[in-house]
Fold:
Amino acid sequence: MPLLQIAEPGQSAAPHQHRLAAGIDLGTTNSLVATVRSGVAETLPDAQGRHLLPSVVRFSAAAAPVVGYSAQVAALDDPLNTIASAKRLIGRGLAEVKQLGGRLPYVFVNPDAAVPRIHTAGGDLTPVEVSAEILKTLAQRAEDTLGGPLAGVVITVPAYFDDAQRQATKDAATLAGLNVFRLLSEPTAAAVAYGLDHADAGTAEGIHAIYDLGGGTFDISILRLTRGVYEVLAAGGDSALGGDDFDRILAQWALEQAGVNDGADHRTLRQAMQAACNAKEQLSSTPTADLVLNLPDGRQWSATLDRAAFEALIDPLIDRSLAACRRALRDARVSVPEVDAVVLVGGSTRIPRVRERVAALFGRPPLANIDPDRVVAIGAAIQADLLAGNRPGDDLLLLDVIPLSLGIETMGGLVERLIPRNSTIPVARAQTFTTFKDGQTAMAIHVLQGERDLVDDCRSLARFELRGIPPLVAGAARIQVSFEIDADGLLRVAASELTSGITARVEVKPSYGLTDGEIAAILSDSRQHAGEDQLARRVREERVEAQRVLESLRAALTRDGDALLDTAERTRIEDAMTALAATLNSIDAKRIGDARRALEQACARYVERRMNHSIQSAMAGQRVDAFE
Amino acid sequence: MLDFSKNYFELFELPLGFAVDAKRLAERYRTLQAVTHPDRYVVAADHEKRVSLQASTQVNEAYRTLKDPLARARYLLSLHTGDPGTDSETSKDGAFLMEQMELRETLAEAQSSPNPHAAVARVLTHLAEQSAALDKELAGLFADPTSANLTSAREIIRKLQFLDKCRRDAEDLEGLIDGRY
Structure:
């Protein structure tokens, strides 16, 4: 029996208002959008009835970017302007991508920079901007189908994506003009789709393993479902292992067999990859497949590949995925027999050899009854619907984890781990530092992700520069730095000097990402380009947020204002509300913002009190339940 | 922010002590997150979201602390004495330290043994048994938190820290061995 929630935290003044929401699976090879209509989560097709949208964008000088199948068709003829698999690039530096063995047939403008820009006929673009085009297309599809603007979306990311990759995904959504409700881990999304599926069968509790082998990434998640609460016990994977790698190994084999050396041109490479991909897919249903290549010297090469030979080529890749599975089980402190179900996600799990070996590791046949291409988007849609507030009786709750440890650089190039991997989010840790020199007013903290002890072996996340530290004698300052990871898995750093109480200004310099300033600049450019009045936009945004605050407070006061506030406090709050309401017609964004902040300050204690009250009610409710 | 006058045990409505009902702890955790988690505040105003984030973070910290025997013990020690100790303190028990050195040697040799996986598994089992025995002692000491008992508890916690570090090293080694298949 689901727990009765006596209080209704977080629901705004319009509890029965239905908000339009969608789930987006932003995949390496293909992307999908799904939404819940009449209680059913479904992926949305394009005008030609195709649900999958190839994650390919073609840029040209004169026209708008083209996304999807038409772009894919152009890839062979126009490889430099047709960008595929941008997901392999977001949140990564070019050197890293090269290290991971990706051969990228694009022209990079600044190969040594933190954020590579791809030179195309449509401009020099970051991978974030490429992904934004895909998101725009899918959001449009959802809005056209639903007949209105989206209040927000849930976008899935590989569980093993680090902070830089997640932030880049969120940045892409910002550039696409989307409000992100939540960044959701792909395996967790799949678990949501399956868990609810089995709710009727009464088997909606237990330990589930999600094996997600997509186009470019591999994720393994071990989750426990207990009465509507899905807890991730451990997340692992390989953010550079996927179906694309299966294609690459096969393409390399083909090129070698064809006597083509490493200097194959882009066109031949693309051709080989395509032929390999087709052969791989064919071998899932037929015992042999033919590969044909039209070589640059005019020859045509062909060969027939059988399953055994194919499996010998891909087994080492499958080995890697299974080692990650065993590690995740160890991290979760779960033994193989304790796993109640194994779920397969991702197109590459259609390969019979993959299914065979996963079944062998877990000692049971894996589940794949929901289309492995669509299951992630479906789960995301369900979550989006829930977060939008469209399912008031539903108590599904997802508790996810960070997949990598978070640490800081200390003396001698070492990393001190602050937050261990598989910590449930949101999570925070504080560390106190002091100054080296007399009068020091600034400090830089280098944050990294990874499990190794040396800085060079971990992934640099960002440098946080703290400024405005009061000048004191060396060693006298007590600078408390808090590292906060939110429910999206994104890091925020705040710092204050304890003896003086002064809050330090934190400037973020991402190692592999765009700064807030850079994102704002891109947005500003594109809005200017679209002829938008940016001042008017800012006023609109402030107005919307102000209205949200007023609505939520009105609802709150109605519910418990009498119980939780004395007259003086209530009057103060209501006065601030009146003052804010008076600014709503203003064209001065700052005026509205200042009034809103004043109101937030006035009701801060009230909001905390409400939270404590909700907790007490829920705990009391549980005690009542316990007696039944 | 949650009511800071409450300690973690009070927040979870559990009796103050080392022995914790794991099932009840987990149930209470789910209840608390169901109320505080940011997912419940996605369409709420910013100031509500901030409180949710702080509260949910604190619930996670409390759960993490109460779930792990070592963290729980240090937390109890800090509640009783105001000093949780640091993880760099060493045990004073010579015999215990000798035993730990031997365990570490066994671990070092495990990699070159004929069955490294089994060798590491044996070390882990031994560590688990030792930890369980110490946990039992702690339960008794914290049930009667006199000054003398708290001092003894502090020493046991130092030992548990050793065992914990050894366990983590053994687990890392297990991963290394597995990675080589």
